[in-house]
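Progress report, Aim 2. The chain analyzed during this reporting quarter is listed below.
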Amino acid sequence: MVGAFLFTYDRLYYLSKMNSNYFNQESERLRYRALTREDIPVWATFFENNDRLHFFNLDSGCNGLEQAEIWIERQLGRYKDFGLGLLAVEEKSSDTLIGIVGLIPRSFEASEEIEVGYSFMPHSWGNGYATEAAITMKEFAKKNGIAPRVVSMIDPGNIASINVAKRNGMHPLFDTVFEGQKHIVYGTENF
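Predicted structure tokens for the chain:
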């Protein structure tokens, strides 16, 4: 057992060996690459006057740049230490950074899962980009045999993410607590 996950050393080695493919993906309208610290200033505007900071467990007393730095550093560590890495999502038509997405192997109720995590900037909402990215991640997980099912932890008040999960063929499985906050785990049926 490695950390909290039911993955053997060989399984983790396999995941690290395929990371080059993971960091070099495209979908119909989107391009994916490794997220870097140089992307932090772009995310600062996302946190300015954001009424959903509780979804990100951030201090509303910090300015947008500080909030972005805290959040990006936390996400980079989480996806690097426990997942396959954090991907920046760019819109192909404008070469604009519009979001992040990533995969993390998880063990829920003693079964192997792959969690899809994503956040998109408000100016990209309503275009179906989150759904497109989630489907891309699901297809990558399925093609590479990472886990039998894809899941996503969603704050119960985040209706937009719940709708993305539903459009991606997920349904509520069970409740869980992450970073002290209640989440609903949505998931697909087994592949």
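Confidence is low (pLDDT under 50) at residues 1-11. Strands lie at 25-26, 30-34, 86-91, 96-108, 111-120, 150-154, 171-178, 181-187. These observations will guide the mutagenesis work planned for the next reporting period.
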